[in-house]
Structures are given as structure tokens and as C-alpha cells.
Design a protein that fits this description.
The protein has 919 residues and is mainly β. Helices cover 14% and strands 53% of the residues. It has nine helices and 39 strands. It has a 35-stranded mixed β-sheet that branches. A four-stranded mixed β-sheet has the order 36-39-37-38. The longest helix is centred in the first third of the chain and has 40 residues.
């Protein structure tokens, strides 16, 4: 036998023996030696059902392996079979190279005992820090994992079933290092499908990896506890699904790069704060986009889109926003530029509830500041650019908690859009909004707004806003109830923030329609069909108000004198304690008001006096007129003309000029009130005079002048055919001889004419027009009853002395001047049939005795003088002789008025008592 043949046979025999040893002996040795050594080293039980080794194919198969928990008990890891094929290059590489590995039905039980402590933590010390290993074609089928978390207050369990894992290769040695490997994983995580595909090249000069992760209905609350840091919120429910592609590259001399793209969706997401209060709820949320990271550029976000369904988020005690649909498209973010860009944001079918708190802060604006206390966030601001924000089918409810009544306002069918939002720096943002309010009300607004510094320019149109919704904003001193009314307006608005104040202008027109107001007692007070203000301009700093035209149509007002004598107008305002008023004027800035023309038509003024006995009511109909050129300028005066009818018969007219808006009120007016029936005024006559009025008419022609706070009032009174009726007992009736005075004042036609002047100062708190007029009337009555001659003298202006007629010494002839005076007196007496005149002659003893006249001659001279005056009054003055009588007495008596001549005739006017004998 040849040597090489012999050597070959020996080698073959050795190989066969070695193969037999490996195939039949080595498995037994491993089972008998490895199992106890592993148990001794780890304190865990190792059980192996069987080991098979094929030395020719270099394959090893392990069956029914079980590795228990520390101290025995449940299995930590187990599998039904594991088949491994070893590559012969392992000897060359001096490291295990697995050509193929297949593990069937593996099961892993992981227990988290506490933070960073697991049931396998004791095994980590046996793992090499950087093992030299290459595994190729690794396949795991029908695997499962049980994860038990005992580190939480309440134990949680997670299950991973139906694990299918394929890894083409995984190496830590320069073997296939320049190749990518593409692992694949599929499983069911807590009942939710999970899929992962990846691509990885870990060596030599850079780590490169890519992976695709697919999730379906993964429950979020189960995994929140495994985040590296605690969140400030609690995820109460939610499921996540999605497919993400991740790529990573990190070189030793280059900045790492990370890219993530895909789509993630959330369902039934509910988030609360740490106390459990609701923060956010979403029925559905889908987020898609690309996320990149590099060491030079930082984070970059592109192609971002967000779609949300059924969103609700509270931001206060009663504030909340809900949306049926929310979408964001075209989103981009650059960390390097700190810039967020969004192409379009759309909101649909939402509901917003917000309020102003009792301190005046408007929510949710306070959320834009740290702590909600109005302190601006001084951190570098994120810059943003948003192409458009729009919404439709929205509603909003605003509640004003600053007022005790907490008024609430609801807007429906809101459609809005904001365009070209950018900042900082902030640029004007064009906007449009339309909404429905109440029953038939509407709002339209458009323009632009700048957030900082805040500025608004736009147009606003509102229609049919019910005034009853805004009665809480009436002055707290106003004791009036708005029962009905609608507000319309069309305005151009320009507002800007200046420090802590808001200033600007409003231009346009406004109207209040169908107004209905009640007074403090709940009675009708004020109504009108329409009040329209046109060509209006209103400025706030300084205050200006320019109005071109004001038109008031079909209005009604009710003035009531209450039983205590006060007016219902006085009860419209509540008194404010001193020092608690509201300062409205701005120091150093004068307010300016101008009204071009005010027109009123078809008005009605109802007057009711409950203060007098029996009560009195009157109505002025057809009240209307105009005021032109009203202004607060010092030297500007408005023309006034008003007209109306009392009980549709007696006309009222007021004309003149006024300026009630300047610092000191100016008025120059003429008031004419004619043919007023006096019989309806019986309640006043009965209360203050003690008599009923049977008949009579009153006309009043007055002139009012107020200038430099001085009032001059002239009243020309005309009373026709006044007759008192029965006596009516009243504790308020005057004791003056009223009936006698009236009869004296009447002329032969039954007419009474007199003037009633009133003067005073408007800045005198003690001055009252009514009080002064009453005093003048009392004086007139006293003169008429007790001193008729003084009354007649007042009719001639008080310039002539009608009480006496002068004569030359020793003469009984009337001078031309005295004749003229007697004619005037006769004319006046002829119009006063109730008056008689007594005539008495006098002489001057000292001067007229010097003419050698004796006593009889002097008496004869005195009588001749009296007879001459009587004859002149009867013949020339055409007076009834029965009304002129001679009086006898001391002819040397002193004159009634100091300084009068002794050579005279004195006249005395007396009044007849009426047929009833009343004074």
C-alpha cells in the first residue's frame, strides 16, 4: 500500500472518529457539563431536550430548551427548536460566523422589577462588551414575549405574539461590513399588528441604518410609563397606527444625520393634566411629513400635514374649543432659522366658548403669556408664516364675567379667514368674518389687524342686534330697563393700542329701531320706531363726535310727576357716593361734538301728574322739528324749531338758537303755547287755588335767554274767559283772594293779560325757575286784589304815577300832561269793569292860602279839582259815571306818596266783590 494511500485512510478514519465524536458524544458531554455549570454560575435552571450536531453540514440543532428565572420557577427563555449552521470561515476569522440560524417558537419572559432593574439584569455581566460575531440569515418564527412591569404602582402586562423576524445578517466583525442588511419584523403587540423593516450598515467608517416601522392600533397609555422622562400630562386613552421610515448615518468625522418620514394616526385620544382634568380629546388625528436632523442645520420639518377629527380642548373653567374637523397643510420648520411656515389651516364645524374674567383679562389671550398673568414671554420668539387660516360652520359663545350679570353672547354660522400671518416682526393680517346672531341678526367684518403693536383697520356691519342682550352695559347709575330694540350699524373702524389705552375712530352710520324702555317703576318711559345716525365720526383720543344727520321717527316719551312731587326722570339715575364717580375727561384735551342736523317727527309726549288731587294727564301729539348746526364750539349756535299739539288742538312751537354742548349753556328761544283749555287743569286749580275751573283758555308767549350762566325769562300770559267753579277744600290751597284778583285782571272781553318775568343764574344751586315764577304770580295776585292801582301802574311799565293828578297853585285846570295820564287810566279802567275809581281833591294850605282864600274857598277849590277830574274821566275818558265817585275828607291831608304836590287830586281804585261774595 502506498504511503499517501495509507495516510489518506488514516486521515479519513480520524475524521470519521472526530465526526462520530462530534455527532454522538459531544452532545451528551455538553448536556451533562453545560447544564450544571450554567445553573451554578447563574442560579437558574437550564433544561435541554436534545442536541444534534451534523459535522458534515456544520449544523447544530437544540430542541426544547428552557432557561428559568433566577432561583427556578417560570421559564425566562424557551424555544422548541433552534437550528444553527456554522460557516467554515469562522476558523479563518477567529470568530463565530453563523451561516444560518432558525429559531422556532421561542418565548421570552421579561419582568421589570423597578427602574433600570429587570429579571435579566444579573445576566448582563456575562455579556462581552463588544462581541466578535457574525450572524447570517437569522429567522425566528412563531415567537412570543411576555413583558410584566412590576415597577409601576399598578402592575401592567404586555404581550408580543406571532413574532416573525428575519435578519439577513448582523455582524460586529469586518465581514460583509460594507453591505447593508435588511431586517424584517412582524408581530402582534397587545392585540395590535406591528411590522418593521430596516436597512443597516454598521461598519467600517460610518454607521448607516434605515428602518420602516408599521403600527396598527397600539394602545398609548400602556407605554407612557416607559418614556425616559415624565410628561406634564396624562394620556388617558388613545391608539396609534402608522408607517414610518427612519434613516440614520453617523461618521466619525462628520455630523450625524437623521431622517424620518411617514404618517402616524391617533384614534380616541384623551389627554388630561396631572390632576385628571380634561385637556384634549381627539377622535382622530393624522400627522404626515418629513423630519430631518443634522449637526449643522439642526431639525428640519417639511411636507407637514395634520388632519384632526372631533377635537375638544378646554383652556379655562368654562372656556373650550371643539372642532369637527381641523387640517394643516404645507407645514415646514427650520430649527436653524427658528421659522415655522404653514400654507393653509382650515377649521370646520366648531364651537368656541371664551370669556373675559372679573379682572378684565380676555381668555384665551392670557394663555399667550407665561402664567396667564399678562407677563410677556421674554424667550426668543418663534418666527412664523401662515398663508391662510379659515373656518366655516363655526359658533362662538362669549361670557363677560367682569359684570355681575355675566352676560353671554352667541354667534352662529361663523365663516372667517385670516391671511398672510407673519411675525415677529408682525405685519398687518387681512381678515374677513361673517356670523349670525340671535333671531335674524348678522355680523360682517373685514380689514386687517396687527398683533403687536396692536392695530385694527376694518369695516364692521351689524344688523338686528337685540339691545336687550346688552342692557348689562348700561351705566350702573341708569335706573332704566331696555325691554326691546334692535341695533344696526355700518362702520369703518380704526383702533390702535397706545400704552394702556385704546384709541381710534369710528366712521359710518348707526340706527336703533323699535326701542322700548321702562322706567324705575316698570312703566312705559321711552319708545321710538327708529333713530338713525348718519355721516358719523367718533374719535376717542381726544374725544370727538361729528354727526351729519340724526333722524328720530314715531317716538314716545312719558313724563310723570310722582305723588311725592318728584319726576320719573329724577329716578332714572341713582346717586353715586362722592369720590366714586368715573373720570371720563382726559386732562388737557378738549372734547368736540358737532351735529349737522337733527330731525324729529310724529312724536308723542305723555304727561301724568300724580302729585295733584285727582291726578292730571295730558298728551302732546305730532311733536316734531329740527335742530341744525349743533356744536360744542364756543361761538357756534344751532337753530332750533319744534312743534306739536296739545290734545291735537292747542299748538306748541319753539324756535330760536341754542348751544347746550359748550361749557356754559347758551339759549335764545321763543316758546308759543296757545289755546290751551284750562278746565282739564281743575286738579291743579283745586289743589293750589281751592276752586274748580269751569272754562277758560291759556296762551303763553315766552322768551328764554341763557348767556354767561344768566337766565332771563319773559312770559307773556293771555287767559281768556276764565271762570272758577265750585269751591274744593285743599290744605295746599292759597289764602290769597284769587277769585277777586282774577275778576280784577279781566277786561270787559273777559281776557286777562300780564307778563311774568323770571331772572336768575343757572350756576346758583338755590335757583329754581318754578319758585321764582310762583313768587311773581303771588305778587301779581296780591296787587290785583289789594292794590289794583299798583297793578295798573305795572301795566304801564311802572314809569307814571297814577295815584294822583297835579294842579298849579290856585288852579283847577288840568294840564295837558295830566289829561294824557287820565286818558290812559280811563282806557285801562274801561277794560276792567270790576274796578271803580274814587276821586278826592286836596289843596296846599301854605301856598294857596296866601291868595286871601278863606276856608270855604279852599274847600271849594279842592272840590272843583275833584269834580273836574271826575267830569274828564266820564266825558273824555268815556267811563261809566257810576264807576267814578267823589270822596270827601281832609283837604289838607298829606300826600300818600312822599314828594307829591299838595295841590292835587288823589285817585283810589277799588274792586267790586263778585256775585258769590267770594274774595
Amino acid at each position: 500500500m502506498k504511503r499517501w494511500t495509507k495516510a489518506a485512510l488514516i486521515a479519513a478514519g480520524i475524521l470519521l472518529l472526530l465526526a462520530g465524536f462530534i455527532a454522538f458524544v459531544l452532545p451528551g458531554i455538553f448536556s451533562s457539563q453545560a447544564v450544571p455549570r450554567v445553573e451554578a454560575a447563574t442560579g437558574r435552571k437550564l433544561a435541554i431536550g436534545g442536541i444534534s450536531i451534523n459535522p458534515f453540514t456544520l449544523t447544530v440543532e437544540v430542541r426544547d430548551l428552557s432557561f428559568s428565572e433566577r432561583g427556578g420557577g417560570a421559564a425566562f427563555v424557551a424555544f422548541s427548536s433552534a437550528r444553527i449552521a456554522v460557516n467554515p470561515l469562522s476558523l479563518y476569522r477567529r470568530a463565530p460566523i453563523i451561516a444560518a440560524a432558525r429559531i422556532t417558537s421561542p418565548h421570552l419572559r421579561i419582568v421589570r422589577v423597578a427602574a433600570n432593574s429587570y429579571n435579566f439584569s444579573d445576566l448582563l455581566k456575562w455579556l462581552p462588551r463588544r462581541p466578535r460575531l457574525s450572524i447570517n440569515n437569522l429567522t425566528i418564527t412563531n415567537g412570543s414575549v411576555d413583558f410584566i412591569d412590576q415597577g409601576l404602582p399598578v402592575e401592567k402586562r404586555h404581550q408580543l405574539r406571532k413574532i416573525e423576524l428575519a435578519i439577513p445578517f448582523l455582524t460586529t466583525i469586518p465581514y460583509l461590513a460594507d453591505r447593508y442588511f435588511t431586517p424584517r419584523l412582524s408581530a402582534v403587540l397587545n392585540g395590535s399588528p406591528l411590522q418593521l423593516e430596516g436597512k443597516l450598515r454598521p461598519f467600517p467608517r460610518a454607521d448607516e441604518a434605515s428602518a420602516t416601522l408599521e403600527l396598527k392600533d397600539v394602545s398609548l397609555p400602556n407605554y407612557m410609563a416607559y418614556l425616559p422622562a415624565a410628561l406634564p400630562v396624562r394620556v388617558k386613552s388613545g391608539r396609534v397606527s402608522g408607517k414610518l421610515a427612519l434613516s440614520y448615518r453617523a461618521a466619525h468625522k462628520e455630523n450625524p444625520e437623521l431622517a424620518l418620514n411617514g404618517r402616524v394616526s391617533f384614534a380616541d385620544l384623551k389627554v388630561a393634566d396631572r390632576s385628571g382634568a380634561h385637556l384634549l380629546a381627539l377622535m382622530g388625528l393624522a400627522v404626515a411629513g418629513n423630519l430631518d436632523y443634522s449637526g449643522t442645520e439642526g431639525i428640519r420639518l417639511g411636507n407637514l400635514s395634520v388632519q384632526a377629527r372631533q377635537l375638544s380642548a378646554p383652556f379655562g373653567k368654562r372656556e373650550e374649543i371643539t372642532l369637527a374637523s381641523f387640517s394643516l397643510d404645507g407645514g415646514k420648520f427650520s430649527h436653524k432659522e427658528n421659522l415655522l411656515e404653514v400654507a393653509d389651516v382650515t377649521l370646520k364645524d366648531g364651537d368656541l366658548r371664551f370669556s373675559r374674567d372679573r379682572h378684565g383679562a380676555l381668555l384665551p389671550l392670557t394663555l399667550l403669556y407665561e402664567g396667564g398673568k399678562g407677563t410677556p414671554n421674554v424667550k426668543p420668539s418663534l418666527r412664523y408664516r401662515i398663508g391662510r387660516i379659515s373656518g366655516s360652520g363655526m359658533s362662538a359663545v362669549f361670557t363677560d364675567e367682569m359684570l355681575a350679570e355675566r352676560p353671554s353672547f352667541t354667534f352662529e354660522d361663523i365663516t372667517f379667514s385670516l391671511e398672510k400671518l407673519a411675525g415677529p416682526p408682525f405685519a398687518p393680517i387681512p381678515f374677513r368674518v361673517t356670523a349670525a346672531y340671535g333671531k335674524g341678526g348678522s355680523l360682517k367684518a373685514s380689514g386687517s389687524v396687527r398683533p403687536t403693536p396692536w392695530k385694527l383697520d376694518g369695516k364692521l356691519a351689524v344688523q338686528r342686534f337685540p339691545l336687550t342682550d346688552f342692557d348689562s352695559y348700561l351705566p350702573r347709575t341708569l335706573n332704566m330697563v331696555v325691554a326691546d330694540g334692535m341695533f344696526d350699524a355700518s362702520l369703518a373702524v380704526s383702533l390702535a393700542a397706545r400704552g394702556n389705552r385704546l384709541s381710534g375712530t369710528f366712521d359710518g352710520s348707526a340706527a336703533i329701531r323699535s326701542l322700548y324702555c321702562l322706567d324705575a317703576q316698570g312703566q312705559d318711559f321711552l319708545k321710538w320706531e327708529s333713530l338713525r345716525v348718519d355721516k358719523m365720526k367718533w374719535g376717542t383720543d381726544p374725544f370727538i363726535l361729528y354727526i351729519g344727520e340724526v333722524a328720530l321717527n314715531r317716538f314716545y316719551s312719558r313724563v310723570v310727576v310722582e305723588k311725592d312731587g318728584s319726576l320719573n326722570l329724577q329716578h332714572l339715575y341713582k346717586r353715586i357716593p362722592a369720590g366714586k364717580g368715573v373720570e371720563t375727561a382726559v386732562k388737557g384735551k378738549r372734547s368736540m361734538v358737532r351735529l349737522g342736523r337733527v330731525t324729529m317727527q310724529d312724536g308723542l309726549l305723555a304727561f301724568n301728574d300724580r302729585h295733584v288731587k285727582g291726578g292730571y294727564s295730558a298728551t302732546i301729539f305730532n311733536l316734531g322739528g329740527r335742530i341744525s348746526g349743533l356744536s360744542s364750539e364756543e361761538n357756534s349756535f344751532a337753530d332750533l324749531e319744534l312743534r306739536g299739539n296739545l290734545q291735537n288742538r292747542s299748538p306748541l312751537r319753539v324756535t330760536g338758537r341754542i348751544n347746550p354742548l359748550r361749557d356754559d349753556i347758551f339759549a335764545d328761544l321763543k316758546v308759543n303755547f296757545s289755546d290751551v283749555e284750562l278746565s282739564p287743569l281743575t286738579p291743579y286749580a283745586a289743589t293750589y287755588l281751592g276752586y274748580a275751573v269751569d272754562r277758560g283758555q291759556l296762551s303763553l308767549d315766552s322768551s328764554y335767554r341763557i348767556k354767561n350762566r344768566k337766565l332771563e325769562l319773559e312770559n307773556k300770559v293771555f287767559i281768556d274767559q276764565l271762570h272758577f267753579g265750585r269751591h274744593i277744600a285743599s290744605d295746599k290751597a292759597t289764602t290769597l283772594p284769587v277769585r277777586r284778583a282774577v275778576e280784577i285782571l279781566k277786561d270787559r272781553k273777559g281776557e286777562i293779560r300780564f307778563e311774568l318775568p323770571v331772572t336768575g343764574r343757572t350756576d346758583d344751586p338755590q335757583f329754581s325757575v318754578a319758585d321764582v315764577a310762583l313768587e311773581v304770580l303771588k305778587e301779581l295776585v296780591v296787587k290785583a286784589a289789594n292794590s289794583p292801582l299798583a297793578l295798573l301802574q305795572s301795566l304801564f311799565g311802572g314809569k307814571e304815577d297814577l295815584s294822583s293828578v297835579g294842579f298849579a297853585y290856585g288852579s283847577a285846570e288840568l294840564s295837558p300832561g295830566e289829561r294824557e295820564k287820565l286818558l290812559k287810566l280811563a282806557t285801562a279802567l274801561n277794560d276792567k269793569p270790576a274796578l271803580k275809581i274814587g276821586v278826592a281833591g286836596f289843596v296846599d294850605r301854605e301856598r294857596e292860602d296866601g291868595a286871601n282864600r278863606d276856608e270855604q274857598q279852599l274847600r271849594s277849590l279842592a272840590e272843583s279839582r275833584a269834580a273836574g277830574v271826575r267830569a274828564f274821566l266820564v266825558k273824555q275818558g268815556k267811563m261809566d259815571s257810576a264807576r267814578v265817585f267823589l270822596k270827601s275828607g281832609d283837604i289838607y291831608g298829606a300826600a300818600a306818596k312822599g314828594g307829591a304836590s299838595g295841590s292835587r287830586v288823589e285817585l283810589e281804585i277799588t274792586a267790586e266783590r263778585d256775585s258769590r261774595g267770594s274774595p
